[in-house]
Design a protein that fits this description.
seven-stranded mixed sheet; Rossmann fold; alpha/beta; three-stranded antiparallel sheet
């Protein structure tokens, strides 16, 4: 694939790239494909982003242009999976939106701990977990700053589901090792007892404690597809995922989350997201971007 063409047409979507390599029709096909597969809306402002994310895949394929590569996707599910992963934003970090974890610790954790200690099942879902920072933060807050008390909880019927559409993101979550600086936002007491220093490399790294990793089920899942889970959850985190969806898709997804919650269960969404549509009949706001499933 030609990466730059001297004298490219002035209406090129990307400066220096010929429309015969990547043109308006290609972007429209990409936008339609990603919306159909994931619900993500690529506005016209994302033309450059689509090119920069997919150009390495097109080059690696050996094909001459985006059109030929998009044709291949019709019969190549593996290549399609790569495209979805490339266009899925995986930006996240530890202890993001601290007010969620503060609410969870103060208002939700005591009840979950009591139920787990009584032998009852506790289920938590991080939907759109990306590379794992959210689920590990949540689990550390749940287990708390006293290691022996936390380890006793790991032996109860307490299971965390972490799902994402991207295999690459899940691989990072499964590795569960991060630069030391990435965990600076965590409370020091949690970082000290639930993370282990790793040797080697130019930058210090920390690994998530194996006891925590054993509690989490990492699964690839398209939120717009079928959900294999039959049971309900006590808590669902889905933050900064729905900002990429159009309003009808968002409303349908939030309603599905609400119905997947136990009565009295909690839904945490991103700071710029809101609950609307049918879900408003099922969820009550209890804090900034925090909702609780009605009991009746």
């Amino acid at each position: 694939m030609a990466s730059a063409v001297t004298g490219a047409a002035p209406d090129a979507l990307v400066p220096g790239i010929s429309p015969s390599v990547y043109g308006e029709a290609d972007f429209r096909r990409i936008a339609a494909l990603i919306h159909a597969e994931t619900g993500i809306v690529l506005s016209d402002r994302k033309r450059m982003l689509a090119y920069s994310r997919l150009a390495p895949l097109v080059r690696r394929s050996g094909l001459a242009n985006f059109g030929a590569y998009l044709d291949r996707l019709e019969d190549d599910s593996e290549a399609l999976t790569e495209v979805i992963a490339a266009l899925t934003t995986n930006h996240t970090y530890f202890h993001r939106e601290p007010h969620h974890f503060e609410h969870f610790e103060a208002q939700v954790r005591p009840g979950l701990v009591a139920r787990a200690q009584a032998g009852e099942p506790v289920r938590i879902w991080s939907a759109g977990c990306s590379t794992g920072e959210e689920i590990w933060t949540l689990l550390m807050v749940l287990l708390g700053p006293e290691r022996e008390t936390g380890l006793r909880l790991t032996r109860t019927d307490l299971v965390m589901l972490a799902s994402d559409i991207s295999a690459n993101a899940l691989a990072g979550a499964r590795e569960a090792a991060y630069p030391r600086s990435a965990l600076d936002a965590l409370p020091e007491a949690l970082r000290r007892i639930w993370c282990t220093p790793l040797g080697g490399g130019s930058e210090p790294r920390l690994a998530i404690d194996p006891a925590l990793k054993a509690m989490v089920r990492l699964r690839m899942l398209n939120l717009l597809g079928d959900w294999p889970m039959r049971g309900q959850f006590d808590v669902i985190f889905c933050r900064n995922v729905m900002i990429y969806f159009d309003s009808p898709t968002k409303d349908r997804l939030v309603e599905r989350f609400a119905r997947q919650l136990q009565p009295g269960g909690y839904l945490y969404i991103g700071h710029s997201e809101r609950v609307s549509g049918p879900a408003t009949e099922l969820l009550d706001p209890v804090g900034p971007t925090i909702y609780r499933r009605r009991s009746a």
